[in-house]
Amino acid sequence: MHNILESTLAASLKAQSFSKKRLCWRRKTDDTIIVVDLQRSQWGEQYYLNVAVAPKLLDPPESPKEHQCDVRVRIDEVRGDAEVFQTCFDLENDQLTDEDRRRIVGIVFADSVEPLIQLFATLDGVAKYVRSPESRGALVSLKLRTALAIPET
Asked: Which of 23, 37, 144, 145 could serve as 66's disulfide partner, Cβ 3.0–4.6 Å?
């Protein structure tokens, strides 16, 4: 079953050459495998949006799952508008119309997902992100920090 979140994300990610399997999209570059994952709550129709990257330098699986990636970002945790995000991504909340959700997902994609996709396309971009203050909300593997000689924060 497709929902408004999935269909809106699918259109944006397809335009950026991502392939889809279930609620997970992947794109391979020369340096990395980028993963965008729409994670459904086990308790209801609430969703989380995750963007992750597996640098090829670390020999990742051919099609890594989000939890197998070396940098993992939950978008609602790095945005300043978490309450709006959570309302939009809670399909049990009827305060928003489908058109409202499409608009908000489009803004989230343009402001938060697309910049990460651009950074995560290269190993230099991944290193730049991990060294930046913006990565404080992200999970970064020790294996990647060691490979890039980035100290833990």
From this structure: 37
pTM value is 0.94
The DSSP code sequence of the chain is ---HHHHHHHHHHHTTT-EEETTEEEEE-SSEEEEEEEEEPTTSSBEEEEEEEEEGGG---SS--GGGSSEEEEHHHHSS-HHHHHHHTBTT-TTS-HHHHHHHHHHHIIIIIHHHHHHHTSHHHHHHHHHSGGGGGSEE-HHHHHHTT----
Distance CA 18, CA 23 (A): 12
Tens digit of each residue's pLDDT (9 = 90 or more) over 31-76: 999 999 999 999 989 999 999 999 999 999 999 999 999 999 999 8
Report CA Rg, the chain.
15
Amino acid, single-letter form, for residue 6: E
Q: 93 near 83, Cβ under 8 Å?
A: no
Q: With beta carbons less than 8 A apart as the criterion, state whether 104 and 96 touch.
A: yes
